[in-house]
Specification:
eight-stranded parallel beta barrel; alpha/beta; two-stranded parallel sheet; binds 6-O-phosphono-beta-D-glucopyranose; TIM Barrel; 14 strands
Length: 469
C-alpha cells in the first residue's frame, strides 16, 4: 500500500456528538429525529417534527457524547494507529440559527481544540461540512434547500471554517451522501413537502442549489488555500440487473444514473444530457441560471468520496422479494448473504463500484464509509466481533484488489462508525459499527464507557502492516 494511504475511521456530529445545547449550539435536524416508528416518516419529509408527541425520545441529543469525550476517543483512535479521522462539524454549533453574521465563538473554539487534539497524534482531519445536519431555523423559516438563499448561508459557514482551519485541515467534503436528498429528503436536506407539491421537481431544485453551493464552496476554498482538497460524497453501490434481460439491464442503468447524476455535475462540471432530457420530459421549471452553470463548470471537485455498504439489484418487472440495504429500494439478490438488518454483504460489489466510479470520473477516490452494523454482546467485559472483522477484511481485500490489480487511485479508507454511534436510519444504538464499544442502550441508558473490541486490535495490526492480513 502507498505509504501515505489514509487509514482511519469516520463518524459524524449528528450521530455521535450529542451536547445539543452545549456551547450555544442551535437546534438542528438531528435533534428532532425521534427513535421509533415515526422516525422514517420524519426523515422522508412526510411528517413534520412539530407534530410529534411530547414524550418522543431523540437519541442524538446526547448520542455517545463525543462532544464531552473527544479527547479519550481520539486517544483510542491514535492507539489504533489512525492516519486520518473523518468527522463532521455541526453547522448550528457555528451558526446557531444559520442567519447570524458572526460565528459562535464557543462552537468554533470547540472545533479548534478538537482538531488540535487530532494533530497532536498526527491524525489528518477529514472534515465533512454538512452531514445530514443543518440549523432548524433555516428549514422552518426558509424552506431549507428549496430556497436559493441557502447558498449564501452555507457559504458564510464554509468561509468561517476555511479561514479558521486554513493551516490545519486539507481535506473537505461539502455534503455527505448528496444523493440521499432524493431518498430521505428531510434527513438529507431538510426538505418537507406540502399537499399537492411536485415533490420530484422540488427535490431537483434543492439538488441544484446544493450543487451550486458545493461548487461555490470549492471555489472559495481554493481561493483561501490553493492546497485544499475538496470532495463530493456519494452513497455508492452499483446496481446489478436481476438478469441479462435487456429491460433489467436498462433499469439498472437508469437507477445508477439517479445517483451518478450528482457526481456527474460535481466531477465533470455540467448537467449530463440524460438529466436535461429528464427535466424536459417532466416539464420542470427549475431555477437554473447561466451564472450557476458557469460556476459548476469552473469549480469541480478534487476527489470523489463515497460510502459503500452494499450493492443493489433491480428487476424490471418489479416482481420478487424486496432486498434490504442502505436506504435505496432494491430487489433481493439471491446470491448474497445479508446482515442482521437485511443489508446485502458483497465485497466484490465494492471492487465493482470502485472501478465503475474511477472509470467514469478519473479522479482520486476516497472511501470514507464502509462497515457492518451488527449487535454486539459483552461477555466478561469483552466483545469478540469476528463477524465485523470478516466483513471489513473482505471489503478491504476487495479495495486492495481494485488498487493493485485494476489501478484504481484511492486516497484512503475510513471505516464507518469506528466508535459505536446512533444509527442514521433507525436511531438505534444497538446497530453497532464500531471497533470501540460504547456502553449505551437504545433507550438511552448506559454509562457511556468505551471498551475496545476484538476488531480494534485487528484493525490496529492491519494499519501497522499497511496491508491486509
Ligand atoms: C450512511 C450515512 O448512509 O450510512 C451514515 O452517511 C450512516 O450517516 C451510515 O450512519 C449507516 O447507516 P445506518 O442507518 O446503519 O446508520
Amino acid at each position: 500500500m502507498p505509504k501515505n494511504f489514509l487509514w482511519g475511521g469516520a463518524t459524524a456530529a449528528n450521530q455521535s456528538e450529542g451536547g445539543w445545547q452545549e456551547s450555544n449550539r442551535g437546534p438542528a435536524i438531528v435533534d428532532v429525529l425521534p427513535h421509533g416508528q415515526e422516525r422514517l416518516r420524519v426523515m422522508l419529509g412526510e411528517l413534520d417534527y412539530r407534530d410529534l408527541p411530547d414524550d418522543s425520545y431523540y437519541p442524538a441529543r446526547e448520542a455517545i457524547d463525543h462532544f464531552g469525550h473527544y479527547k479519550e476517543d481520539i486517544a483510542l483512535f491514535a492507539q489504533m494507529g489512525f492516519k486520518a479521522y473523518r468527522f463532521s462539524i455541526s453547522w448550528s454549533r457555528i451558526f446557531p440559527t444559520g442567519e447570524e453574521k458572526e460565528p459562535n465563538q464557543a462552537g468554533l473554539a470547540y472545533y479548534q481544540d478538537f482538531i488540535k487534539e487530532l494533530l497532536k497524534y498526527n491524525i489528518e482531519p477529514i472534515v465533512t461540512i454538512c452531514h445530514f445536519d443543518m440549523p432548524l431555523n433555516l428549514i422552518d423559516k426558509y424552506g431549507s434547500w428549496k430556497n436559493r438563499q441557502l447558498i449564501d448561508f452555507y457559504l458564510r459557514y464554509c468561509q468561517v471554517l476555511f479561514e479558521t482551519f486554513k493551516d490545519q485541515v486539507k481535506y473537505w467534503i461539502t455534503f455527505n451522501e448528496i444523493n440521499m436528498l432524493m431518498h430521505l429528503p428531510f434527513m438529507g436536506a431538510g426538505l418537507r413537502f406540502e399537499e399537492g407539491e411536485n415533490v420530484l421537481e422540488s427535490k431537483y431544485q434543492a439538488a441544484h442549489y446544493e450543487l451550486v453551493a458545493s461548487a461555490r464552496a470549492t471555489q472559495l476554498a481554493h481561493q483561501i488555500n490553493p492546497d485544499f482538497q475538496l470532495g463530493c460524497m456519494l452513497a455508492a453501490g452499483s446496481v446489478y440487473p436481476y438478469s441479462c434481460k435487456p429491460q433489467d439491464v436498462w433499469q439498472a442503468l437508469q437507477m445508477d444514473r439517479e445517483n451518478y447524476f450528482f457526481i456527474d455535475v460535481q466531477a465533470r462540471g455540467a448537467y449530463p444530457n440524460y438529466a436535461l432530457k429528464f427535466f424536459e420530459k417532466q416539464g420542470f421549471n427549475l431555477d437554473i441560471r447561466e451564472e450557476d452553470l458557469q460556476v459548476l463548470k469552473e469549480h469541480t471537485v478534487d476527489f470523489i468520496s463515497l460510502s459503500y455498504y452494499n450493492s443493489r439489484c433491480v428487476r424490471s418487472d418489479g416482481a420478487g422479494e424486496a432486498g434490504g440495504g442502505n436506504v435505496f429500494a432494491s430487489a433481493k439478490n439471491p446470491y448474497l448473504e445479508v446482515s442482521e438488518w437485511g443489508w446485502p454483504i458483497d465485497p466484490l460489489g465494492f471492487r465493482i463500484t470502485l472501478n465503475n466510479l474511477y472509470d467514469r470520473y478519473q479522479k482520486p477516490l476516497f472511501v470514507v464509509e464502509n462497515g457492518l452494523g451488527a449487535r454486539d454482546e459483552l461477555v466478561d467485559g469483552q466483545i469478540e466481533d469476528d463477524y465485523r472483522i470478516n466483513y471489513l477484511a473482505g471489503h478491504i481485500q476487495a479495495m486492495l484488489e481494485a488498487m493493485e490489480e485494476d489501478g484504481v487511485d484511492i486516497l484512503g479508507y475510513t471505516a464507518w462508525g469506528c466508535i459505536d454511534l446512533i444509527s442514521a436510519t433507525t436511531g438505534e444504538m444497538s446497530k453497532r459499527y464500531g471497533m470501540i464499544y460504547v456502553d449505551k442502550a437504545d433507550d438511552g441508558s448506559g454509562s457511556l464507557k468505551r471498551i475496545p473490541k476484538k476488531s480494534f486490535y485487528w484493525y490496529r495490526d492491519l494499519i501497522e502492516k499497511n496491508s491486509h492480513i
